[in-house]
C-alpha cells in the first residue's frame, strides 16, 4: 500500500527520526502542502536520504527559493521543492540560513539541478553555497553591486546611495 | 610542441545570433570541430519579475506572467492564477476549467509550431517555417476572437477566465480542429523521414533518463528520454482529470526523439481541444468569491455595495490568509512553477518563478559535450528555450 500525499509528512518525520535523529526541526503544512524544516548542519545528509532511500526517492529538484524575512532572525530561509517521480510525492524542504555566514552547504552533489538554482540564489540574494563548483553570478553582470531580490535593496536609484 | 598536440579554441556565439533564439550567449571550447565545453551566459533579458511581483497585488501581477514564455502565455497565466486561488481558497467553476484546458492546449500547439519552424530553420530547412506559421496564425486568430489580443493576452483570471466565449469562437475552434490534422501530416511528410534531418538529429545530444531527472529537466525534453512524467497526468489540474489523452515518450533521448515527442504532443493537444470544446459545461466562468474577487461590470452598475467592493479590491487588493504555496502547471517547455509566500497582506512577500527553460538550459553542456559544433545548434533547438523565461 503506497501512502497518500497527505500522510507523507508524518511518515517522513518518523522515518527521519529513526534514521537521522535530530535532523528534522519541525513539520508544517500549508494549503495541503508539506514543508519539512531541517537543521542547517544536517541538510546534505537529509537531502541525500530523501533522494536515495526507499520509499521516498525524491530524485527531482523542481525549485529552489530563498525567502527574505528582513526583520526576523534568522533573516533568510531557503526552500527546496522536491518531487518523487516514482510515487508522485511533493515535498518542501526548508532550511534556515545562518545570519553570520549567510552560507549553506551546496546540494550540487545531490541534485545536479541545484547548480544553476544555487547560482541564481547567490546572485539575487547573496546567499553563499559552500562546495558549489562554480559559484558566480548568473543573471546580473559580474561587477554588479548588491543583491537585488533582498527586501532592503532600493527600488530606484543605485544600491548604497 | 609536437604536431600531434592539439590546442583548444574558444569561440563566442551570440548574444545576437539567430540560432540562440534570443539573447543567449555561449562560450564554447572546441577541439577542432568537437565541443569540449559549452558555457551559457544568460541574463540579458533579466527584468527581476519575481521582485516586481512583490510590489503588486495578486491580480495585478497576472499580465507580467505573459512575458515569461510569451509563446504560450496562457499557460503562465494559469499557473499564477492557480497559485493565487490556492492561497485564497477559491475553486473556479467547471466551465472555466474546461476553457482553461482548451486555451492551454491551443497555446501548447502554438508554442510547438514556433519551435518546429525555428528548429528546422536552424538546421537549414526553410520551408517548414512557412507551413508552421500558417497554422500558428490560425491559433492567434482564435485567441483574438476570444479575448482581442494575439499575444500576451492575460485572459486567465484568479478564479476563472475573463470572459465567456464569443458566439463565433467554438465554431472557429471546430474549423481549426478539422483542418489541423492535415497540417501535421504535411509537416511529418516534409520532416520525419527526411534523410538529412534524420542524419542531423539521430544520436545527437543524447541524455539518459537518470541524468535528465538529475538535471531537473521537464516537459518534452524529459519525455524524449523515456520518462513519462507530465503534470497534467501526475497532478491533474483544471479539467485534465476528466479528459482523455496520452503522454508520448521517446526512447533514446536524442534530438530526434524530442522532435517525435513534440509532434505527437500536438496531436494529443488537439484531442484535448476537441474534447474540451465539445464537453464545455454550462455556467459561469468566474468564481463567486466576493471577499477576494471583484464583482462583474454589470453588477457594478446595478448595485451600490458592489461598486464599493469593486473599488475597494481595485485599490487595496484582496488579502489571502498567511501561508505558502507551490503551484505548477505543465507548460509547453516543462514545469512552470510559482512559489508564493503570503504574510496576509494584499501583496505577496516572495514569488519564485520556476522557468522550465532556465532549468532545461542548464543541461545544455551535458548534451553538447563531445558533439560537433554544428550539432550544438540542433541541440539548442531541441531543448526549446524561450529567453524571456530563462532570464525572467
Structural account:
The complex is a heterodimer of chains A (161) and B (392). In chain A, 21% of the residues lie in helices and 29% in strands. By secondary structure, chain A is an alpha/beta fold. Chain A has a domain at 5-103: NADH:ubiquinone oxidoreductase Nqo5 subunit (Beta Polymerase, domain 2, 2-Layer Sandwich). Chain A has a 5-stranded mixed beta sheet. A two-stranded parallel ribbon of chain A has the order 6-7. The mean pLDDT of chain A is 88. A 3-stranded antiparallel beta sheet of chain B has the order 1-4-5. By secondary structure, chain B is an alpha+beta fold. Chain B has one domain: Orthogonal Bundle (Cytochrome-c3 Hydrogenase, chain B), CATH 1.10.645.10. At the A-B interface, strand 3 and helix 3 of A face helix 8, strand 8, strand 9, strand 10 and helix 14 of B.
Question: What secondary-structure arrangement, pairings included, does this model have?
Answer:
The complex is a heterodimer of chains A (161) and B (392).
Chain A: H1 8-19, E1 24-30, E2 33-38, H2 43-52, E3 60-68, E4 76-84, E5 89-97, E6 103-105, H3 114-125, E7 128-130
Parallel strand pairs in A: 2-5, 6-7
Antiparallel strand pairs in A: 1-2, 3-4, 4-5
Chain B: E1 9-13, E2 16-17, E3 22-23, E4 25-31, E5 34-41, H1 49-53, H2 58-65, H3 73-88, H4 94-122, H5 127-147, E6 156-157, E7 160-161, H6 169-191, H7 195-201, H8 209-214, H9 220-223, H10 231-234, H11 255-278, H12 297-302, H13 304-316, E8 323-330, E9 335-342, E10 350-354, H14 356-361, H15 364-368, H16 373-383, H17 387-391
Antiparallel strand pairs in B: 1-4, 2-3, 4-5, 6-7, 8-9, 9-10
Helix pairs in contact in B: 2-3, 3-4, 4-5, 4-11, 4-16, 5-6, 6-11, 11-16
Keywords:
heterodimer, A: 161 residues, alpha/beta, Beta Polymerase, domain 2, five-stranded mixed beta sheet, 7 strands, 29% strand, B: 392 residues, alpha+beta, Cytochrome-c3 Hydrogenase, chain B, three-stranded antiparallel beta sheet, 10 strands, globular
Amino acid at each position: 500500500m503506497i501512502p497518500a500525499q497527505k500522510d507523507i509528512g508524518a511518515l517522513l518525520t518518523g522515518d527521519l527520526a529513526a534514521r537521522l535523529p535530530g535532523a528534522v526541526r519541525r513539520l508544517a503544512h500549508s494549503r495541503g502542502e508539506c514543508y519539512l524544516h531541517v537543521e542547517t548542519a544536517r541538510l546534505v545528509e537529509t537531502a541525500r536520504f530523501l533522494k536515495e532511500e526507499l520509499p521516498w526517492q525524491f530524485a527531482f529538484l523542481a525549485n529552489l527559493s530563498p525567502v527574505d524575512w528582513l526583520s526576523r532572525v534568522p533573516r533568510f530561509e531557503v526552500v527546496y521543492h522536491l518531487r518523487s517521480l516514482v510515487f508522485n510525492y511533493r515535498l518542501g524542504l526548508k532550511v534556515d540560513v545562518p545570519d553570520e555566514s549567510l552560507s549553506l552547504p551546496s546540494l550540487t552533489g545531490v541534485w545536479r539541478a541545484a547548480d544553476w538554482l544555487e547560482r541564481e540564489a547567490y546572485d539575487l540574494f547573496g546567499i553563499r553555497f559552500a562546495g558549489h563548483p562554480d559559484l558566480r553570478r548568473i543573471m546580473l553582470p559580474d561587477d554588479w553591486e548588491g543583491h537585488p531580490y533582498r527586501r532592503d535593496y532600493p527600488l530606484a536609484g543605485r544600491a548604497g546611495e | 610542441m609536437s604536431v600531434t598536440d592539439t590546442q583548444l579554441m574558444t569561440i563566442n556565439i551570440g548574444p545576437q545570433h539567430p540560432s540562440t533564439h534570443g539573447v543567449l550567449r555561449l562560450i564554447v571550447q572546441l577541439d577542432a570541430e568537437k565541443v569540449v565545453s559549452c558555457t551559457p551566459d544568460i541574463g540579458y533579458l533579466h527584468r527581476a519579475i519575481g521582485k516586481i511581483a512583490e510590489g503588486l497585488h495578486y491580480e495585478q501581477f497576472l499580465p507580467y506572467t505573459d512575458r515569461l514564455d510569451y509563446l504560450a502565455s496562457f499557460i503562465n497565466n494559469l499557473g499564477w492564477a492557480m497559485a493565487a486561488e490556492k492561497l485564497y481558497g477559491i475553486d473556479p467553476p467547471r466551465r472555466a476549467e474546461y476553457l482553461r484546458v482548451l486555451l492551454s492546449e491551443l497555446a501548447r500547439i502554438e508554442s510547438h509550431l514556433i519551435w518546429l519552424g525555428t528548429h528546422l530553420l536552424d538546421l537549414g530547412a526553410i520551408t517548414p517555417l512557412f507551413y508552421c506559421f500558417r497554422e500558428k496564425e490560425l491559433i492567434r486568430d482564435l485567441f483574438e476572437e476570444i479575448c482581442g489580443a494575439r499575444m500576451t493576452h492575460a485572459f486567465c483570471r484568479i478564479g476563472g477566465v475573463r470572459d465567456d466565449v464569443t458566439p463565433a469562437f467554438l465554431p472557429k475552434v471546430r474549423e481549426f480542429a478539422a483542418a489541423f490534422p492535415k497540417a501535421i501530416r504535411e509537416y511529418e511528410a516534409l520532416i520525419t523521414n527526411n534523410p538529412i534531418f534524420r542524419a542531423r538529429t539521430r544520436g545527437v545530444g543524447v541524455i539518459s533518463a537518470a541524468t535528465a531527472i538529475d538535471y531537473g529537466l521537464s516537459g518534452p525534453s524529459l519525455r524524449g528520454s523515456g520518462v513519462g512524467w507530465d503534470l497534467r497526468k501526475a497532478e491533474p489540474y483544471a479539467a485534465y482529470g476528466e479528459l482523455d489523452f496520452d503522454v508520448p515518450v521517446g526512447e533514446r533521448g536524442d534530438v530526434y526523439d524530442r522532435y517525435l515527442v513534440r509532434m505527437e504532443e500536438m496531436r494529443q493537444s488537439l484531442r484535448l481541444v476537441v474534447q474540451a470544446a465539445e464537453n464545455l459545461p454550462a455556467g459561469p466562468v468566474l468564481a463567486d468569491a466576493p471577499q477576494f474577487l471583484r464583482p462583474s461590470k454589470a453588477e457594478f452598475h446595478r448595485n451600490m455595495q458592489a461598486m464599493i467592493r469593486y473599488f475597494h479590491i481595485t485599490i487595496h487588493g484582496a488579502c489571502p490568509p498567511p501561508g505558502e504555496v507551490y503551484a505548477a502547471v505543465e507548460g509547453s517547455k516543462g514545469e512552470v512553477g510559482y512559489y508564493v509566500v503570503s504574510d496576509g497582506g494584499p501583496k505577496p512577500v516572495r514569488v519564485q518563478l520556476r522557468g522550465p527553460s532556465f532549468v532545461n538550459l542548464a543541461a545544455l553542456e551535458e548534451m553538447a559535450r563531445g558533439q560537433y559544433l554544428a550539432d550544438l545548434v540542433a541541440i539548442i533547438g531541441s531543448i526549446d528555450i524561450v529567453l524571456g523565461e530563462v532570464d525572467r
